[in-house]
Each structure stands twice: as structure tokens, then as C-alpha cells.
Amino acid sequence: MAQEDIFKKIIAHCKEYGFIFQSSEIYDGLSAVYDYGQNGTELKNNIKQYWWDAMTKINENIVGLDAAIFMHPKTWEASGHVSAFNDPLIDNKDSKKRYRADVLIEEYLEKLEAKIQKEVDKASQHFGKNFDEQKFRTTNQRVIANQSKVDEIKARFIQALEKNNLPELKKIIEDAEIVCPVSGSKNWTDVRQFNLMFSTQLGSVTEETNTIYLRPETAQGIFVNYLNVQKTGRMKLPFGIAQIGKAFRNEIVARQFIFRMREFEQMEMQYFIKPGTEMEWYNYWKEKRMKWHKALGMGDEKYRFHDHDKLAHYANAAADIEFQFPIGFREVEGIHSRTDFDLGNHEKYSGKKIQYFDTEENRNFVPYVVETSIGLDRMFLSVVSNAYTEETVESTGEQRIVMRIPEVLAPTKLAVFPLTKKDGMPEKARKIIDELKFDFNCQYEEKDTIGRRYRRQDAIGTPFCITVDHQTLKDDTVTIRHRDTMEQERIPANEVGKIITEKVSMKNLLKSL
Asked: For 157, how many CA atoms within 13 A lie in the half-sphere containing its CB?
């Protein structure tokens, strides 16, 4: 099945089972804005908890913050967003569709690199253990030709981005003969810049209003509160400030479900350090964050680092952690060495001294910053897209859809079923839930056959189902059924909590970090 078809099925599944809905759907929806349903909200909150606890619980020198969405407009001048927060856009005259010029070029480069990898994979299968990949890449004519194209276009692309050379971006698109995915034509407009910030008015009388912005990132709320946190918390370098919050970007080319939205949520941590130590901490947080992702057990091969070719105006080093979605490898988290750009600029624009006094060195300085920034919605999408599985049940030959969500993140941890609605089974099932509902999210269900109830829980990713039957009434044992293997075993009813807690424990996951 094509990966695009799988992605469409995941989107449909998310709606059918209460994970994600189109915003304002009864009014035909709002483009690139989504609501999280009952199961999506639980999963999202569990991801938040995993990130928050990994930052603030197990790191004594990282504390939390919840800054306001509205900020003084000078904040965004100081950060560079007013002048530099733009996307290069290009329209196709035939389809009337608008695209990001840089994305069109990046996707073209990905196609060339995929062709190269296909040739390498074919040769590897043909030659087996004797295959010398490096020699093949430097001698095969098709690989050499495609690699030459990649190198040439990438060099031009990086230079054009660094110099903000919009005509050159268009020339690259024309020279590479990149076509519109909809019309198939090469009839392009010129490339132009578009600022991504939403603006609004603050004030009750029109004449008195001031233009302010919905924040395009949460990081600046941390930077402007650096002194408040450092002084009130008596924090010593190095230390971090973590925040989870909404951000807003007026994405003109918003697509790919919740991967690129206009209203989204970020989980960011800014780590304040001594100047000169930034590369040490940059590499430390790269590895630390990758370990956090891989600890979920979704497959180490699904992750990779991607170093930035073009650095943002505030960075001297930057890398993305990419995850293999059905739409290919895409960014989930960014790690950036932001130097002293942000604090230095806020000091300049505010006229306030924003420095740290080092008692050991007896001097003041503006701290450097290493940032880890993860898109919560993209993290959510990585979990559900990796979890979605269609398979044939060997014993019956029937098809089932199962969401193999990591147990610790599953929206519902336990479902309890009475075999029938009589003989005291519902009362026993309710008793089990009443004892465990304070520890984790449980569901009670008595409608339909046991098989159908299992399938519904599989579809929302519930890792464990407990069935209360006639034998339960005799010896107080129940059947526990495991989502991924569908194996069933009998256990004492009073051990259900202990067994499941061990499997879904956030504490155990955090200890592995």
C-alpha cells in the first residue's frame, strides 16, 4: 500500500475514534486548525507529562514557566521576527496553488537522493557481502550524475537562502524543471516573502489601539523572564527554563494534517550556560533528546539527526531530530545553539541589564543559550502514525486495526468487561475499576460480544483488557488480554493493579533516561 494511502487512513482513523477533529467542522471547518477529541486529549496530555517530567523532575536545575501569549510588540522586534520571520512563496499560474519555494526545492533534492539510495540498495542486494558502498557511489555513472545535481543545487540553494536571493530561488526551480504537483506545469510566478505572524489590536477604543502579535514561538516568553526566574529561584548556571504552550503562525501553505498548523503547541526548554561552553551543551542535549525519543520503543531506525545547511539568524549550530512518518523523514524536534542573541537583543531593546553575575569569576556577562524545541502536535502525529497497524489475525483470518501506542502514553490503560450483564459480573467489573481509576485511565464496557469489545479497544490503543467471567465468581481470577499479542492469561483479580502499573509506569520510563 502506498504511504500516502496509509496516511489518509490514519487521518480517517483519528476522526472515527475520537483522536482529532477538524475545527468548526459543522461550519465546513477551518483550514489547518484542528481540535483534539476525547482520546486525542488523553494521549496529548500523556506526551506532555512525559516531556515535562523528563525536564523538570529528573533535572534539578530545570524549572517550569507559563508565559502569556500576548507580549509587548517590542519583544518581536528584538527577537527578529518582525523583520526576518518570513517564508518564500511562489504561485503556479495554471493551478492557482501556492507553495513554499524552499520546500519545493527540498522535496526535489529528496527525490534525487532517493534515486541514489535506490541504486545503492539494488547493488547491495546484487553483490551481497562483497558490496563496497563507498566505491559504488564514486564509480556508478547514474549515482555520480544524480549526486552532482544534488551538490550543485544544494550549494546554490544554501547561498540563495543566506543572501535572501528570491530571484535565485525561482531560477533554481526553473533550472531543476520542478513542476506543480497539481497542474504539472512549470508556469511559476516570482518568489516573494510573506511574514508569518498574526497581528491583532490591544485596546478598547480604536484610536487607542496598539498592534500586537500572537506569539509565533514560546521561547521569547522564557527569555524576557530570565531575570525573574534566575533571581527568585536563586538559579546558578547552567540552568534551564521549560515551557509548554500554544503558538500561532499564519502558514499560507498549511498541509499534511497536523504536521503543519496555524495554531499549534510547543514544548521548549532554554538552557542558560557560560559563553564558550555552548558546543559542549549543544552536543549533550542532542544526545539527551534523542534518547528521550528512542526510550518510547517506536524503533531506533525511525529517527535520525539532520544538521541545518542554513542557520537561523540567532544560531551558531542547529540540528533537527527527524522521524520517519508515512510522508517521509520530517522534523519533530530542533536543538539550537542560540548564543547570546536573544538575551543580548532584549537587553538592547529594553534598556534593562540582563546579565548573570558569576561569583567565582567575579564578573557579569550575558549567558549563552542552548534550546530544545519539540512540536507537541508533530510528536502526537509520530506516535499515532507509528502505532497504526492493519493485520490479519492468524487464528480467525479476520482483519483488525490496532493502535500500538506505547503503553505509558496510551489514552486508556485498562478496559474491564463483564462477560455478561448478569450473575454479579458487572458489579465485580465495576469494583475493579473503582479501585484502579485513581491510578490510571480505565473504561468499562458491557455492550456487544467480547470480540467486538476487544476490537474497539484495539482501535484506540488500550494495552490491557480484563474480562470478568463465571470463573471469576468462583476463584476471584480474571482474564487479562494483551493488545499487541492478543495473548490471554488468568491472574488473581487483586493483582491487576500491580501488573498493569508496572507496564504503564511513567516512573519506570523516566528511570531509563
From this structure: 25
488-492 β-sheet, strand order: 442-444, 414-418, 464-468, 477-482, 488-492
What CA–CA distance (Å, rounded) separates 264 from 215? Answer: 11
**Mind listing the pLDDT tens digit for each residue in 150-181?**
999 988 998 888 788 899 999 999 999 999 98
Digit-coded pLDDT (tens) for 201-219: 887 655 555 788 999 999 9
Integer Cα distance of 304 and 320 in angstroms: 8
Structurally, the chain folds into a number of domains equal to 2
- 116 lies in a domain? yes
Global pTM value: 0.84
Residue type, 466: I
Burial of 109 (0-12, 13-18, 19+ CB in 10 A): middle
Complete DSSP assignment for 383-404: HHHHHEEEEE-TTT--EEEEE-
Grid cell, residue 282, equals: 549543544
From CA 348, how far away is CA 312, in angstroms rounded? 20
Amino acid sitting at position 490: R
Q: Which three cell numbers stand for residue 288?
A: 539527551
> Which of 296, 266, 268, 259 lies closest to 378 in space, CA to CA?
259
199-202/210-213 β-pairing? antiparallel
pLDDT value at residue 147: 92
Q: Residue 138: in which H helix or E strand, if any?
A: helix 133-139
| Chosen domain end from 160, 192, 224 | 192
Alpha-carbon gap, residue 360 to 367, rounded angstroms: 15
Cell of 340: 547570546
Tell me whether residue 402 is in a domain. no
Given a cut of 50, the residues of the chain with pLDDT beneath it are none
Residue appearing with cell numbers 507537541: 376
SS3 call for 341: helix
Domain residue limits at 442: 408-511
